[in-house]
Each structure stands twice: as C-alpha cells, then as structure tokens.
Amino acid sequence: MRIQIALDLTDLLKAVNMARDLCTAGADLLEAGTPFIKTFGIGAVALLKSSCPSAELVADLKTADVGALEAELARTAGADWATVMAATNIETIEEFALRGRELGLKIALDTIGVLSPYDRVKEVLGRAPLDMAIMHLGIDVQKRRGLTVDQLVAEALRVKDLGISVAVAGGIGQRELEKIAATNIDVAIIGRAITSAPSPKEAFLLLKSIITK
Predict the structure, then answer these.
(1) Which residues pair with 59 in a beta bridge?
(2) Of 12, 70, 107, 171, which residue has the fewest beta carbons closer than 10 angstroms?
(3) How far is CA 196 from CA 3, 27, 64, in A?
(4) Do residues 25 and 50 lie in contact, with contact meaning Cβ atoms separated by under 8 Å?
(5) Among candidates 153, 66, 48, 167, which has minimal Cα distance to 109?
(6) Partners of residue 133 on adjacent β-strands
(7) Cβ–Cβ contacts within 10 Å for residue 130, how many?
(8) What H or E segment, with its residue span, contains residue 91?
(9) If residue 165 lies in a helix (H) or strand (E), which one and from where to where?
(10) pTM (global) more than 0.85
C-alpha cells in the first residue's frame, strides 16, 4: 500500500515547502489537489514536481470535458498521473485515457458522485485503459450524511476484483488507515490529516509506519 498526499492548498509557497519537507520523509506519491490547480493553474504542477522529483506527481484535474487536451496539459506540466471524472460522458474518458496512454500519463478514474462505482468502472474498462479507480467520499457528503470510509473500503474491494488497482479517498486519518492497511487496497489518499497537522512531516511518518508494520 502507498499513501498519496493530497496537497489541497491555496498557498503556493506553503505547498512547495511542504512538498520538499515531505520528500525528505520519503513521500513517493504527491497530489497537486484540485483547489491548488484551480488557484495557480496547471503550470504550477511543475513546481510541486520539481520540489520532490523522486515522487510520482498526481494532477487531480477531475476532467469532465476535452479529455485529450487536459491529458496533454497534465503531462506537459510534469504530472505522472491525472484524474478524470467517472461521472462524465464515456467519450471524454476515452479521449483522456487514450491520449494519456500515448503520452505515458497514468490514468485514475475518480468515482466521486457515482451511485454504483462498480458498474461504472466495469463499463469504462470495456472502453478505455485505466491504471486505477478511486473510491472517493467527498467532503460535503461527509459533513451532511456522516458517512465513513467503511463503505468506501467495501466498494473498493469489489472494484479491485475487476482486475484494476484501487484507491480510497475522503476523511482518512490514523484510525481509518489502520482499517485500510489490513486490506489489499493499493493507495490511501490522505489530505487534511497530514497537511493540517502541526508538523505534516511527522504526521506522514506516523501514518507511513501504519502501512509498513
């Protein structure tokens, strides 16, 4: 299992310094979060990549249209991975995945807002190449419905049976990670539990120790 650190920050200097600090702690999967990209533009992805060149960099674009173009933008900016919305039309997903594959970009399908992630991932796999499917519980849903990661884990394990790597995202902290680490889920995407901690580096090292026991 790997930890993907979601840098959902709107302070550029803070994001760059945090990426550098986390890099020294052994972070190998960093995410330029959607708020970061919306604030500073896709070009800022290159700053995070240069801050920790040893890590794979995920551009969380959540692409919903012009799939091929957005895949090109992500790869040109130095991203190793980029995300496309499962809820968008299949044509966009195909364009994004096919162009991304040509460029060497790894493709992650974000299932946020999809009622049946299993069915959607199965459908997409029949049409487009994917490297990972993300079971994502959005912040607004967490706040209003009080849902937990337990449902995410169960759905992720179902999706993994389709023969694809899976990630889970949404409100994951130490307690949740301990549950996830006991499964064969591939990636835990963690944001606030690390980035909002007094010491993001120490928070990451603590969480990393859970998955390396």
Answers:
(1) 32, 82
(2) 12
(3) 16, 16, 29
(4) no
(5) 167
(6) 109, 166
(7) 22
(8) helix 90-103
(9) strand 165-169
(10) yes
List of residues 6+ apart from 208 with CB closer than 8 A: 3, 25, 26
Taken in order of first residue, the domains within the chain and their CATH numbers are 2-211 (3.20.20.70)
Residue 148, pLDDT score: 65
Comparing 64 with 115, the larger pLDDT belongs to 64
Q: How far is residue 108 from each of residues 5, 21, 132, 139, measured CA to CA in Å?
A: 15, 26, 5, 19
**Hey, how many other C-beta atoms are within 10 angstroms of the C-beta on 45?**
27
Q: Which amino acid is at 187?
A: V
SS3 category, 101: helix
> Please, which pLDDT band fits residue 152 given cuts at 50, 70 and 90?
confident
Contact between residue 63 and residue 83 where contact means Cβ atoms under 8 Å apart: yes
Q: Kindly provide the b/e burial profile for residues 50-61, where b requires at least 16 CB atoms within 10 angstroms of the residue's own CB.
A: ebbeebbbbbbb
Q: Classify 42 as helix, strand or coil.
A: helix
Angle between helices 12-24 and 200-211 (to 10 degrees): 40
Q: What is the CA radius of gyration of the chain?
A: 16
pLDDT at 167 over 50: yes
**d(Cα 187, Cα 5) in Å, to the nearest integer?**
10
Phi/psi for 109 (5° steps) reads: -95, 115
Q: What pairs with residue 31 in β-bridges?
A: 6, 58
Structure tokens at 37: 């990209």
